[in-house]
Design brief:
The structure is a homodimer of 185-residue chains. Chain A is mainly α. Helix content of chain A is 73%, strand content 0%. The A-B interface holds A 104, 107-110, 139, 141-143, 145-147, 149-154, 156-159, 165-166, 168-169, 171-180 and B 104, 107-110, 139, 141-143, 145-147, 149-154, 156-159, 165-166, 168-169, 171-180. The first copy, chain A, binds a DNA duplex (30 and 30 nucleotides) through α1 and α3.
DNA sequence: CCCTAAGGTGAGTCGGGTTCCGTTTATGGG
DNA sequence: CCCATAAACGGAACCCGACTCACCTTAGGG
């Protein structure tokens, strides 16, 4: 790949991230291209569709989040690690409104564009759940994919005062996950 | 309102319901108008925007669902009534794919178009929760509005096998709601 | 330095919601 | 019964935004 092509690709991703995470999640392609200093044609040379660009930005954010579970599991008991990760997602949904929409799109839809991100996030949750089950602190039979869905609804909250609501319902979910566990905390 | 106008309004709602609940939830306005035997101009005489028409169809469906809680509370203990209502929502999400999307739109977004439906549904959940709290079977401090959000994610599930997932996570939610109640069942 | 394939451009297409205004029609008073 | 008139209707035109394509520019190896 030519040097200028790589540069433009990066510029587009940066412009899109800037737009999505700090403001309107539905910035027009013309606007994104303009911010990146290129024309729309160039945007489409690098990304199949507008949605593909969105997906790539979000995938990178999700990848960063997915690095947390191993760290949390090393530092806390599984049950607490799970609780903290759930809250971490809620917190991230709070920066700008972009990240919340990102997480919601990934978690609450079936769009094939987000398959990668969804899989990655489900795997992260699976690790936390498995550790919790092994320690007898979490009920068995819950998959990361399933948990992801409930979280999608939470991260999509936008109304005023949503953050308190999100924390509250996350606590309910967490309690539900412990309900019926071998050794509930 | 003139008789023919009322007839056309009904025809439009019927056509839209038909389209949304049995097939593609994003039928074009031309298509809906055609099915109703009118032109687009007429559609726009009766509904501000396409979304307003969608909202009206969904509001009617939601109103029907919201009639259930009083009946359930008369027939079952509060805790069981709550459980059954949650499952009722999941079931309704399964007919066609339209109803699921309807419920998701209403529950998981903040679109002002769905304000009425959202309020109505939150009130229904509030009644169930309040009865549960009064009976000591449900934890205190959870509002219908909050619960609505978690349900939004669930009703929006579309992947294959989603119904099992939905039932499972609904059970988790329900357990979480009982966790810490005065007299957990 | 030049050749060429990779890369870039942006006016144009296309699809879908919305608007606008000329035409048609229901309906109530004469 | 018929006309007046306001309400309702039709559908072509418009707008907006994602996407395409035919042509131009340029990096960079030989």
């Amino acid at each position: 790949m030519r040097a200028d092509a790589r540069r433009n690709r990066e510029a587009l991703l940066a412009a899109a991230r800037e737009a999505f995470l700090t403001g309107d999640a539905d910035a027009h392609v013309e606007e994104i291209a303009r911010r990146a200093g290129v024309a729309v044609g160039t945007l489409y040379r690098h990304f199949e569709t507008r949605e593909a660009l969105v997906a790539e930005v979000y995938r990178q954010e999700v990848a960063a989040l997915c690095a947390a579970p191993p760290r949390l599991l090393a530092e806390y008991p599984p049950d607490e690690a799970l609780r903290r990760f759930l809250l971490l997602l809620v917190e991230h949904s709070a920066v700008g409104k972009g990240m919340g929409e990102a997480l919601e799109s990934i978690m609450a839809t079936d769009s094939p564009v987000f398959d990668d991100a969804r899989t990655e996030m489900a795997r992260a949750l699976d690790a936390l759940l498995a550790a919790g089950v092994a320690a007898g602190a979490v009920r068995d039979g819950v998959s990361g994919r399933v948990l992801l869905r409930a979280l999608g609804g939470i991260c999509g909250m936008r109304a005023k005062g949503w953050e308190d609501d999100a924390v509250r319902i996350t606590a309910i979910l967490h309690d539900g996950l412990r309900y019926g566990a071998k050794h509930p905390g």
